[in-house]
C-alpha cells in the first residue's frame, strides 16, 4: 500500500501454538501512524487490551491533528518535544482506559499490552514504546533497534547477570517489566529522529523478533521484493517454532529520484563522526540519536572566531566540514579538520578556554552544550554510565600522555645534567 510518499505492509498471524491472536495493529494513512500491540491476560483479555490500546492511542493522536499540521508546516508554534509529549499522553490515555475496563470486569483483571508506535511527519519520525514489541530502522544495509525492551531478559542482560547464551534457560523469559493497562499509568519511552529517503521501519511483536538475529532482517530485505518481505518474516518465524502470535508492519520511505540527497548525507555524517569520538563510542544507535537531537550545526566563514582564549567555555565542537586553527595570539598550535573535535572538557569543567579557535576556511561545526549534556546524563542512567566511563577513559589517556611527555622531559634534563657535569670536569686546555 502507498500513501503520501510512504509504502507499508501490515501482516499478522496466530502462529503455530496459540488458539487465538492477542496481537493488534493499526495503520492510519492520513496520520502516517503505525501501531503494534501484543496483549496479555486470560479469557481473551489480552486481545481486548491490545485492541483497546491501538484504538485509544490513534484517537488521542487524531484529536491533535491541527497541532501535527502546524509542526509539519514549520510555523514554530509546535516543537518536536510537543509531539513527543502528545505521544506520551496518548499512551497514558490508553493505559488508563484499559485499566478502568479491567476494574469494571473481573474477568479482565490484570490485562495489559505492549505498544510500539511510529508517527512520521515530513522528514521526522517519532516513536512511543512500552513493553517488548520493537521498532527497527533498516538504513543503508544496517539494522538499528530504535526501541528498548522493557523485559526481564533485557534487565538481566543490562546488569551483566545474564549472557545471550543463557537466555533459553530463563524460566520467565517472556515477562515484561512495563505494560499498558496493568496499572493506571505507565512510563513510556519516546524518541524522535531524522527520517531519510529509502529508510525502512519494521514494527513487530516478540513473536517475530524472538526468532531472528538483527542482521537477518537486512539480508532478507535485500533478497526479497519489498511486498514479499513482511510475509516471509512471518513464514520464517513459524518455521522456527511459531510459539506466539506474530505481527509485522513494514514501512518504507520512498527512495529519492537521484540517489542520496544532501539532507541524508548531513545526517549520516553527524552520526558517523559522533560515533567515532571516544566520548560516544559505547553508545547504541538509539542513544546516539538522542545525542544528535540536542546538538546544533553552526557555520563559519574563513577568519571567523569560534572561541576566544580566556573565554568561559561550555560547549564541545566537532568539525563536520572545513578546517579550524587553534592558536594563542598569532602563534599556531594546530589545525583541526573533519572528524576532529575540541572543547570536550568544557562539558564538565567551567575553566576558561586555554586557546583561541578560528575558522581556517568555510567550515561547519557540530556543537553540544554543557546543559544539554547534563540533561541526558540526569535522565538516562544507561547513557550516563557510558558517557562518564568514556570521559574517564579520555582523562586517563590524557594523563598517560602527559606523564609520558613529562618523563621524556625529565630524561632530557637528566642527560643534559650528565653532559654538563662530564664537560665541567674536562680541563680548559685539554
Describe this structure in a few short sentences.
By secondary structure, the protein is an alpha+beta fold.
What does this 3D model show about the protein?
The chain is an alpha+beta fold. The chain has two domains: 2-259, Phosphatase 2c, domain 1; 261-430, Jelly Rolls, CATH 2.60.120.10. Helices cover 38% and strands 26% of the residues. It has helices at residues 45-63, 65-73, 80-104, 152-158, 206-209, 214-223, 229-239, 262-276, 285-293, 370-379, 381-424, and strands spanning 2-3, 6-13, 23-28, 33-40, 112-113, 115-121, 124-130, 134-139, 142-145, 189-194, 200-204, 246-253, 296-300, 305-307, 315-321, 323-328, 331-337, 341-342, 356-359, 363-369. The strands form four sheets. Strands 1-2-12-11-8-9 form a six-stranded antiparallel β-sheet. Strands 3, 4, 5, 6, 7 and 10 form a six-stranded antiparallel β-sheet that branches. A hairpin with a 2-residue loop joins strand 6 and strand 7. Helix 1 packs antiparallel against helix 3 and helix 10 (370-379) crosses helix 11. The longest helix has 44 residues, at 381-424. It is elongated. The model has no long low-confidence stretch (mean pLDDT 89).
Write the layout of secondary structure elements.
Blueprint: E1 2-3, E2 6-13, E3 23-28, E4 33-40, H1 45-63, H2 65-73, H3 80-104, E5 112-113, E6 115-121, E7 124-130, E8 134-139, E9 142-145, H4 152-158, E10 189-194, E11 200-204, H5 206-209, H6 214-223, H7 229-239, E12 246-253, H8 262-276, H9 285-293, E13 296-300, E14 305-307, E15 315-321, E16 323-328, E17 331-337, E18 341-342, E19 356-359, E20 363-369, H10 370-379, H11 381-424
Antiparallel strand pairs: 1-2, 2-12, 3-4, 4-5, 4-6, 6-7, 7-10, 8-9, 8-11, 11-12, 13-20, 14-19, 15-18, 15-20, 16-17, 16-19
